[in-house]
Amino acid sequence: MLIRDRGAAPLTPTVVQASAGATEWLEVERVTNTVAELERLKKAGFWVYGAAEEGVPPWEIDLTGPIVLCFGGEAKGLRRLTRESCDRLVGLPMRGRVQSLNVATAASALLYEAVRQRTPPLTPQHSRQGALD
Predict the structure, then answer these.
(1) Percent of the chain having pLDDT more than 70?
(2) What is the band of 41 on the pLDDT scale with cuts at 50, 70, 90?
(3) Which pLDDT score, from 0 to 100, does residue 38 have?
(4) H or E element, residue 113
(5) pLDDT tens digits, residue range 51-97?
(6) Which residues of 15-54 are buried (b: 16+ CB within 10 A; e: fewer)?
(7) Domains of the chain (ranges, CATH numbers)
């Protein structure tokens, strides 16, 4: 996980507790220049996708290879230069009166889709229906 060096909250004991221990096994790296880091990762073969409400649905993008998902602040979204550095924007279609999700919820949904795409389909004997037959 990459976190901007300036303007981002420090990894305090409260953050560690709120993460339910995930900070213990997740590598966290602070970066000074987000755009330079994204360009380095692109040269290393990563596709960079930015979360934005006008982006295409995640199931329309191949999330199975080496990817970077960029998330902006809840109020303003991605910074302009970060947005411009993205290969593509990905968004979650919203229904009804809710126009956006908080960043943690949006990140969870996009990460779930990436995991779903990377997981082989269940065979009939492993599916719930197969277990009931």
Answers:
(1) 90
(2) very high
(3) 95
(4) helix 103-118
(5) 998 999 999 999 999 999 999 887 788 999 999 999 999 999 888 88
(6) eeeeeeeeeeeeeeeebeebeebbeebeeeeebbbbbbee
(7) 1-32 (no CATH), 35-121 (3.40.1280.10)
* Distance in angstroms (rounded) separating the CA atoms of residues 118 and 62: 10
CA distance 57 to 63: 11
Tokens of 49: 């996708």
Distance, CA of 28 to CA of 124 (rounded, Å): 39
> What secondary structure letter does DSSP report for 122?
P
Position of tokens 């987000």? 34
